[in-house]
Design brief:
460 residues; Helix Hairpins; 5-stranded antiparallel sheet; 3 domains; alpha+beta; Beta-Lactamase; Heat Shock Protein 90; 5-stranded mixed sheet; binds adenosine-5'-diphosphate
């Protein structure tokens, strides 16, 4: 079932429930007040007639005259109010002229109730009509002299109630039909942007053109946010696919040169035309090309393991001890560059010792390679709040701002450099830092030097 129909059904059902409850309450209250109004009128009229009789007679006059003087009942009656007076035996002694030959009913219950001097109110079905009948005793002094009966047919009230009921039911149905149409229309208008988003997304996916984006109206509503989220998903997918394509191109490119060298040198060796010294050089060149390939392959392997979620061997480490080890190992690489130890705040981190050493050696190796002889590379540790910052700062050639933002990308190498690396070292270093819930950043000024800063959370 489509959302449009579901929304419409919701509107209609909710409105239906509200209207039915409202109509039921309204009808109930109306019926109650109309009936009480009738009862009140009947009681009033009966009261007036009884008072009239009491005013015109006294116990003595009745005893002396032997009869009761009765008031003119038509004064109290009206088109729909009938009045009748009965004596104590139940005989009708006077009635309003609108009753014609009809008599208001009397049964045993009413009779007994009047004998006990209790008023009585009851609805009688008479033919198709219901009659509301109020009977009240007439007393003179402390003697019961008869009863007044006042009746009103309920057909007018019933007709009014029927008309109201018809109006409520008809109104409810009409309102529901109207709301169903309006709801469908509103739901269509509301959902139209979603259809547009779906269509555009479908076009993007089917045309495999991930550089296209969904339109964002700028209203910052839910649909705009959906478009923005989907756009950032497309952007990520686009980057991902581009990176994949670039990665395969880069890998083939990187492997081609050493493979050509190995192959050329093997051909040379196979030709048997080389002297002893040339043979050794050729073998050496092939070996270093193979070394480069195997370094590249192991770097790639590590990165793909990292992507697949390689787990680290985490232990509690004294970071200054780790730095000291790295410092000593790196002495062998120094190549005329002075390797110095700066501030070394004590701190414990939770980490993989081998990976952290690999990261730092990589940074020091880069720093040494990009620093001319006579320059220096300083290793230091600073504590800063919850973190410890390990910096590898050199006084080398520095990195241009346009290269700085790409330095951690896979296969990114600064152009025009004599020294050819794979461009994977810093990508690996960054991954190791992030896998420790830390980060690796760089600050650099061309001609002055660079500082790579490893930020790790302190563990106590
Ligand atoms: P590579 O294996 O090619 O050195 P990296 O990822 O380690 O790859 O480094 C990427 C680029 O960053 C290199 O091409 C290099 O030019 C530059 N770079 C790295 N470290 C430094 C540094 N300390 N000073 C100047 N440039 C650096």
């Amino acid at each position: 079932m489509s959302i449009r129909i579901r929304l419409t059904l919701w509107y209609v059902s909710l409105l239906g429930i509200v209207l039915i409850l409202f109509s039921a309450a309204f009808f109930g209250v109306l019926k109650y007040s109309l009936t009480t109004e009738v009862d009140r009128t009947l009681q009033e009229r009966a009261q007036q007639v009884a008072l009239g009789i009491q005013a015109q007679n006294s116990l003595d006059s009745i005893l002396s005259v032997g009869g009761v003087t009765l008031p003119e009942l038509d004064v109290f009656s009206s088109r729909s109010i009938f009045i009748q007076i009965r004596d104590t035996k139940g005989q009708v002694i006077k009635k309003s002229s609108n009753l014609l030959n009809f008599t208001l009913p009397l049964n045993q219950v009413i009779f007994t109730s009047i004998q006990q001097e209790q008023p009585h109110l009851k609805t009688f079905p008479i033919g198709d009509v219901e009659l509301r009948l109020y009977s009240v005793p007439i007393r003179l002094g402390n003697r019961l002299i008869g009863m007044v009966q006042v009746g009103q047919p309920l057909n007018e009230i019933q007709m009014t109630l029927q008309r109201v009921l018809f109006f409520l039911i008809g109104g409810t149905i009409a309102a529901l039909v109207l709301v169903a149409f309006l709801g469908m229309f509103l739901a269509r208008i509301t959902l139209r942007p979603i259809e547009r988003i779906t269509m555009t997304a479908h076009q993007i996916v089917s045309a495999q053109d991930l550089s296209r984006r969904l339109p964002v109206a700028g209203t910052n509503d839910e649909l705009d946010r959906l478009s923005q989220t989907m756009n950032s998903m497309f952007a990520r997918l686009d980057n991902f696919f581009r990176a994949q394509t670039r990665l395969s191109a880069d890998i083939s490119h990187e492997l081609r040169t050493p493979l050509t060298i190995v192959r050329g040198n093997l051909d040379l060796l196979g030709s048997g035309m080389l002297g002893e010294a040339d043979r050794a050089d050729t073998i050496g060149a092939a070996r270093s090309a193979l070394d480069r390939m195997s370094r590249l392959v192991s770097d790639l392997l590590l990165l793909s393991q990292a992507d697949a979620g390689l787990t680290l061997k985490m232990n509690m480490l004294e970071l200054d001890g780790v730095i000291l080890d790295v410092y000593q190992q790196a002495q062998a690489l120094s190549n005329g560059v002075k390797l110095k130890l700066g501030r070394a705040d004590q701190s414990q981190v939770y980490g993989d010792e081998d990976r952290l050493k690999q990261l730092l050696i990589n940074l020091i190796d880069n720093a040494i390679k990009h620093t001319p002889p006579g320059g220096s590379v300083t290793l230091s540790i600073h504590r800063e709040d919850e973190y410890v910052l390990v910096s590898v700062a050199d006084t080398g050639e520095g990195i241009k701002p346009e290269d700085l933002s790409h330095i951690f990308d896979r296969f990114y190498r600064v152009k025009g450099q004599k020294r050819k690396g794979s461009g994977l070292g810093l990508a690996i270093a960054k991954w190791i830092a992030q896998a420790h819930n830390g980060d690796l950043s760089v600050e650099s000024e061309p001609g002055v030097g660079s500082a790579f800063i490893l930020k790790l959370p302190i563990s106590n």
